[in-house]
Amino acid sequence: MNTLVASRHSQRLQSALPPVPALFERLRAVLSEPEASAAEVARVIEGDPAIAARVLRASNSARYAPASEVCSIRQAVMLMGVSAVGNVLLEAGLTRAFAHLSDDFDLDGFFGHAVRTATSCRELAALSQARCVDPEQAYATGLLHDVGQIALANADPTTYGEVLDASGGDEEILLEVEREAFGLDHAAYGSWILRQWRLPESIAVAVERHHHVELLAEVAPLERLVRMHDRFDEAWMSGGAEQALETRENELMLLLDVPPDVFARHLEERVAFADLYTGSHGDLRSKAALFSGGELC
Ligand SMILES: [Fe+2]
Ligand SMILES: [Fe+2]
């Protein structure tokens, strides 16, 4: 990709490319067969007991609410669908690929933000009446949107530690300091990695542009979702739910084709999920109305 080739650190960054999670690659190979069955997908997953356990746990979670306990991977694949299972694999692969960074990088903070963003993107995509964004693709995009950060830390932990210190937690400064130190920022590096991993171009584009500043109404729905929830979570982590809601009001102004009461429930669930809300839930419904009634697609 041009941005990477133009970077004076191009060689170092290219050689530091984390491998595509192995199991994800095997799953892709199985799915490239036109007649791939749930049993074949299950066989790939069963080859890795730790990931098989994750898939079983996910399939028994409240999200899928199975009528009786799911005990086999094949059942889990049929219940969750291949895309959702692919996201479990991707998440596990990312955790493994970067686990060695734990002393130099706040992995818990990174994955917490990634999973919260991913979960919010998936929920809102599913709530959208127009159904123009696949919820599992929205999840993958949210999960991966900052993968460039962890990959820059992987390429040069010391320099990236200095970059993070210099940014003082400010996203705009972070991007600038990344460009000074590495010749490109985490959005550009992340999208380059996803293209090397042969993930869908729509995900790579949304990741590449997740810090762009155009009005949300002017960008593609997938990009809109990830940008909105990324900023929402950043504001949430620094100032709690009230600040996050202000961010939506002042900067994001996303019009959603989600009914106000459904959107209010979504906000309340986000609040419970992060367990960071300190104010009153009372005005969530009226705030939700500000963001509802328009078109996502
Ligand atoms: Fe970012
Ligand atoms: Fe982010």
Essential attributes:
mainly alpha, 297 residues, 2 domains, Hypothetical protein af1432, binds fe (ii) ion, 17 helices
SSE layout:
Elements lengths: L1 H5 L3 H6 L6 H10 L6 H9 L2 H11 L13 H8 L1 H16 L9 H21 L7 H10 L2 H9 L1 H11 L3 H12 L3 H11 L4 H8 L12 H32 L7 H15 L9 H7 L7
Helix pairs in contact: 3-4, 3-7, 4-6, 5-6, 5-7, 6-7, 7-9, 8-9, 8-15, 8-16, 9-14, 9-15, 10-11, 10-13, 11-12, 13-14, 14-15, 16-17
Over the alpha carbons, how many angstroms does the gyration radius reach?
A: 19 Å
Major β-sheet annotation: none
Total discrete domains: 2
Task: Give the low-confidence spans.
Answer: 249-253, 275-294
Average pLDDT over all residues: 80
| Cα distance spanning the termini | 29 Å
Strand content: under 5%
What's the number of extended β-strand segments? 0
CATH superfamily of the largest domain: Hypothetical protein af1432
Task: Provide an overview of this structure.
By secondary structure, this protein is mainly α. The protein folds into two domains: 2-18 and 98-290, Hypothetical protein af1432; 19-97, no CATH class. The protein has helices at residues 2-6, 10-15, 22-31, 38-46, 49-59, 73-80, 82-97, 107-127, 135-144, 147-155, 157-167, 171-182, 186-196, 201-208, 221-252, 260-274, 284-290. It starts with a helix and ends in a 7-residue tail after the last helix. One fe (ii) ion (FE2) is lined by residues 113, 145-146, 230.
